[in-house]
Amino acid sequence: MRRLALIGNWKMYTTPSSARFLAEDILNRLNGVKEADIVVCPPSTSLVSVADIVNGSDIVLGAQNVHWEREGAFTGEISIDALVEIGCRYVIVGHSERRHIFGESDEVVAKRLRRALESGLKGILCVGEKEDERQRGETEKVISRQMDTALEGLKRTELIVAYEPVWAIGTGRRAEIRDVEAVHRFIRKRLSERFGKDASGNPVIYGGSVMPDDMAELAACEEVDGALVGGASLSAESFASIVTRAIERRIA
Ligand code: PEP
Q: For position 150, what pLDDT does the model report?
């Protein structure tokens, strides 16, 4: 069975001091939990303060972005060497807020992912359709395009794919479990077409308005290897509850 991954995306919430407080609360609740990979992704301005709290614990640090060049004249961007030095082990790429608010193309997402993987970080590749694309029956077409571009030329890598239907992110409208199951099965098929049987270990997780009460149903689904959690990861209590419910359901 693939390992569970529960990832908190703090987006542009928290300052260094409030992030520290949140990280301490999460650590107090979840340190010692070995049955899942538990990752927190604070904004870049809070990475250092959260690293002070979680590095060396069972809570792992992730970043929300990385640039593809090692360094250079790229105002506002984040370098891989900085992330490695801080102690990040994961990086989110292709989040719908990056794609649709900041206009990141599939090609840019691919370059960011490649840099992360080449430098030994694990990539969390977000894919997902917009609402009008779903209504037009284009979900698989969109996800194929996003995955094909991001994975072009890659060997089997340390990669998590997060299925995040855009219309479910931050809206309180979680996708129906049968739709999640169908899309995850499709993503897994695409992963194995590209990487062969090696892809069987790559987690495919769901993101989009996940709350503690959703997690048992999601984790009961064989195709769901965890969750990428936005809003509910900003409360240590609800994030810990999501982690606990996922683990309980998996081992039940
Ligand atoms: C996300 O930020 O990736 C996300 C899924 O957010 P939310 O859980 O708030 O929908």
A: 97
